[in-house]
Write a structure and sequence with these properties.
Elements (H helix, E strand, L loop, with lengths): L2 H15 L12 H11 L4 H14 L3 H6 L2 H8 L6 H16 L8 H5 L6 H12 L8 H11 L8 H14 L5 H14 L18 H4 L17 E10 L5 E5 L10 E2 L2 E2 L2 H10 L8 E2 L3 E4 L4 E10 L13 E4 L9 H9 L3
Parallel strand pairs: 1-7
Antiparallel strand pairs: 1-4, 2-3, 2-8, 5-7, 6-7
Helix pairs in contact: 1-11, 2-3, 2-8, 8-11, 9-11
């Protein structure tokens, strides 16, 4: 199939079957595309929609985002995961306002220099937001191109990754670039799926090497498996007489960076020492069964300790980093922490 025939086939399919009514596709601007692309990294469309809509109500443009505190941004992001994305959005917004007159840059190089924006995200912002010809290579597009060209191996391998970028650049048309890139993402998300792809309705199946050789189940190859390390800790759910919960603010970098969370301890000895310093009766804490939360790179096994105190004493750490708070929409808690707090509220 010629390059023009490939893009034409994809665009004809998009006109008939492509997604055109997602919230970020309405009143499309580079800013709205940017926010949606960051939210959609590692996250399903259905999950992103309500977060995107709330985010747009509160931060309607880059100036509003730049002027907000990181706490406000994190609070609206809470539950979406991968919190470095929110921190990078906030940092990038301030750079855009300070150095680019509150306008997103119009080149791949300038966009890629901003925190949290890589080559593919920059291409999506330019093409979808401004209809500038720019190629993309997200997970869905990688899968489509691997199967179409019969590229074996893991797409994250440096050599294969470079080959895929060359192919993406070659196939991206100079016309209707926004529709084409959206079509490629939709094709991967709805037709050329990871498992049991719907090859019979694919617009490029006539020349798809993986389909013609019946290898769609092995192309592309998955990421080489590695043993996930396990981290263990105790997590304290402590309420005072008014029902507020003792929370600590996590460092801005690392897991759950910048969020309020429950105190964590590596051992029961650490729990005992903390309770002594905080004037908490350790014997009143109820120990619940161990739970597991899985991150992208490790498992967290934690034992919840639940208790109440009549004291509002917070003697450890800076006051700005530990408080008695009532979890609500203004306090960003990690999803598993919020779930634990809600389940132990009775």
């Amino acid at each position: 199939m010629q390059i023009e025939s490939f893009s034409d086939a994809v665009l004809v399919w998009f006109d008939r079957h492509g997604r055109k009514d997602l919230p970020w596709q309405l009143d499309r601007t580079p800013y709205r595309v940017w926010i949606s692309e960051i939210m959609l990294q590692q996250t399903q469309v259905a999950t992103v929609i309500p977060y995107f809509e709330r985010f747009m109500v509160r931060f309607s443009d880059v100036k509003a985002l730049a002027q907000a505190s990181l706490d406000e941004v994190i609070a609206l992001w809470a539950g979406l995961g991968y919190y470095a994305r929110a921190r990078n959005l906030h940092r990038a917004a301030r750079i855009i306002v300070d150095q680019h007159n509150a306008l997103l840059p119009h080149t791949i190089e300038e966009l890629s220099a901003l925190p949290g924006i890589g080559r593919s995200t920059a291409g999506a912002i330019l093409s979808l937001g401004s209809d500038i010809r720019a190629s993309i290579l997200d997970g869905n597009v990688k899968r489509v191109l691997c199967r179409y060209q019969g590229i074996e191996g893991w797409p994250g391998d440096a050599k294969i990754f470079a080959e895929l970028w060359n192919l993406s650049e070659a196939l991206t048309p100079s016309y209707r670039t926004a529709d084409y890139n959206q079509a490629m993402m939709d094709l991967g998300a709805t037709v050329c799926t990871k498992r049991k792809p719907f090859c019979s309705v694919c617009p490029i199946n006539a020349d798809c090497k993986a389909f013609l050789t019946q290898r769609t189940d092995v192309i592309p190859a998955p990421k080489p498996r590695q043993t996930m390390p396990v981290r263990k800790c105790y997590m304290l759910v402590l309420r005072n007489a008014s029902g507020k919960i003792y929370l600590e603010k996590r460092p801005t970098s690392g897991v759950w960076g910048g969020l309020w969370s429950l105190p964590e301890f590596d051992s029961e000895v650490d729990v005992d020492a903390w309770c002594v310093k905080q004037h908490i009766d350790r014997s009143t804490l109820e120990c619940l069964p161990r739970r597991r939360h899985t991150f992208s790179h490790f498992h967290l096994d934690f034992v919840p300790l639940v208790g109440r105190t009549t004291s509002d004493y917070c003697g450890i750490g800076e006051p700005s980093l530990c408080r008695w708070l009532t979890p609500d929409e203004t306090v960003g808690l990690p999803a598993p922490v919020l779930k634990l707090v809600n389940e132990t509220s009775g």
